[in-house]
From TrEMBL:
Keyword Transmembrane tagged: yes
The keyword DNA damage appears for this protein: no
Domain HD-GYP: 317-505
Boundaries of every GGDEF domain copy: 170-305
Membrane-crossing segments per the record: 29-47, 67-92, 104-125
Domain HD residue range list: 339-461
Keyword field: Coiled coil, Membrane, Transmembrane, Transmembrane helix
Protein name, UniProt field: Diguanylate cyclase (GGDEF)-like protein
NCBIfam families reported in the protein's UniProt record: GGDEF
Lineage: Bacteria, Bacillati, Bacillota, Clostridia, Eubacteriales
């Protein structure tokens, strides 16, 4: 019973929104009703006068045109209104006919029934036209495979909601969702298997999300959820609840045992407390998602602005410099989209290592700052070198290897921050002495630089870059272990892998 009531309510809302969605349409319908009632009253008054059949016939024809027009303009809503009006007039005609048995009244009665028939036919055609129009509109904004909104609609509604939030002091939250190991399912079990995962995941997420949220397929195996006016301190709880509910409901939707292993990684951010505009909001949520996947998958990660964290831990003399460095990082990001996100991820890995080693808060802060700014010298690099897909020439490699020195020069105003410029300059030194720019070896390389070397290399291995595809986290761990003692400090490699596995557990 509740299901039927819910369907009827939904049908009523659809009709209302379709035919009475604007104030102008409501006024138009009211005008037709008013005119029809006024003409009916005139006809009723004319009953008291003789020889008024012709006038009443003209009025009746006008009324028929109005109700037909109502059916054309308002479909079933217009039909329902028209039927009420026509039946009211029909009752008066029947009453008069029973008194006088006038043949003109019988003709008028026939006209009323014919009017209802024509009106019903037009209302059906109008409704079908509206359904077809809605279907075409829906196809234009939805993903054919999953039924979720498509990327075009995602950008359209995100811009709209951000504009509303800006004008009304509201907020917009963006949740990026990625299906873990989707490529593996697709490659091993086939595309149909992967498509079923996508469809079912979209169905489950739609069931979990509130009515005011928008579920969009952002691309590939990635979904995006736009929601408004969610408190920042509740956002992470909301995302965690979404992941838990997905875990619970997938038993209901997925019948195959393999499907039951499907998990989600989630990244999130918010406007205006965390981001300033649409591009920054998308970037932050996407970065948080990437971080959630690299920290073990089946995780929720709220974006953390590493530069803002650093700002809290440096002297007031350097506060303005952080804003300048943020601008430089944005400039690099425009040249090389990999670099900005890479720096933030390296900062997170470096902090993970430093905390696992029990370093002081001051030392951790310096390492975090160095990690975030270690590639800032790439602003001096030409775009064609940074984004080159082919193998670099010897001259280009030599030029690219100057970026740690450029980074050190740019960061010279922060030279009084203990060891920061040293860490940045030497993050490409190797444990066996074959690194650059100074060929330092073993413990000659500062601890912070050795930590950055491991964190930087790991992120490079698990990320897609212009010249290489990403490898799995497990393969990256094996590569680190293979090169421990030559490229990397073996102790730091061991600590990092243990910390990452512990975090993922």
């Amino acid at each position: 019973m509740n299901k039927h009531v819910s369907l009827l309510r939904k049908r009523y809302v659809d009709l209302r929104d379709t035919y009475l969605g604007s104030e102008l349409k409501k006024v138009e319908l009211l005008f037709y009703i008013s005119v029809s009632i006024a003409l009916g009253l005139i006809q009723y008054k004319l009953l008291n006068y003789e020889n008024t059949y012709n006038i009443r016939a003209y009025i009746s024809h006008i009324q028929s045109c109005i109700v037909i027009l109502m059916a054309f303009r308002f479909g079933y809503v217009g039909l329902a209104t028209a039927v009420v009006l026509v039946l009211a007039e029909t009752i008066f005609i029947i009453e008069e006919y029973l008194v006088s048995f006038d043949k003109y009244l019988l003709l008028g009665l026939t006209l009323k029934f014919f009017t209802i028939f024509v009106t019903s036919f037009i209302a059906v055609l109008t409704n079908r036209q509206q359904i077809q129009k809605k279907r075409l509109e829906r196809m234009a904004i939805t993903d054919e495979l999953t039924g979720a909104y498509n990327q075009r609609f995602f950008h359209m509604v995100l811009e709209s909601e951000l504009e509303k939030a800006k004008n009304n002091n509201g907020s917009v939250s963006l949740i990026m969702i990625d299906i873990d190991n989707f490529k593996m399912y697709n490659d091993i079990y086939g595309r149909d298997f992967g498509d079923n995962i996508l469809r079912t995941t979209a169905t489950i997420l739609s069931e979990i999300l509130d009515e005011g949220s928008y579920l969009c397929r952002y691309g590939g195996d990635e979904f995006a959820v736009i929601t408004t006016n969610t408190r920042l301190d509740n956002l992470e709880d909301m995302a965690n609840n979404l992941r838990r509910e997905f875990e619970r409901l997938k038993q209901k939707y997925y019948k195959h045992k393999l499907y039951e292993k499907v998990t989600l990684s989630i990244g999130l951010s918010e406007y205006p407390n965390m981001s300033r505009d649409k591009n920054e909001l998308i970037y932050q949520a996407d970065t948080a998602l990437y971080h959630a996947k690299n920290l073990g998958k089946d995780k929720v990660h709220l974006y953390q602005d590493a530069l803002m964290q650093i700002r809290k831990n440096i002297s007031s003399d350097h506060q303005q410099l952080i804003g300048i460095f943020k601008g430089l990082l944005s400039t690099i990001s425009a040249k090389d989209k990999y670099t900005h996100g890479h720096c933030e991820r390296v900062a997170a890995y470096a902090v993970l290592i430093a905390e696992a080693m029990g370093l002081s808060a001051k030392e951790i802060s310096t390492i975090q700052c160095a990690a975030l700014l270690h590639d800032i010298g790439k602003i001096e690099m030409p775009r064609h070198i940074l984004n080159k897909k082919e193998e670099l020439t010897e001259e280009e490699i030599k030029y690219l290897r100057q970026h740690p020195i450029y980074s050190e020069n740019i960061l010279e105003p922060l030279a009084d921050m203990d060891k920061l410029t040293d860490y940045v300059r030497h993050h490409h030194e190797r444990y066996d002495g074959k690194g650059y720019p100074d060929g330092l070896k073993g413990k000659e390389i500062s601890l912070g630089a050795r930590i950055l070397c491991v964190a930087d290399s790991f992120d490079a291995m698990v990320s897609d870059r212009p010249y290489s595809k990403s490898m799995s986290k497990e393969d990256a761990f094996k590569e680190l272990e293979k090169n421990a003692g030559t490229q990397f400090d073996p102790e730091i490699v061991e600590i990092f892998i243990k910390a990452m596995k512990s975090y993922a557990a």
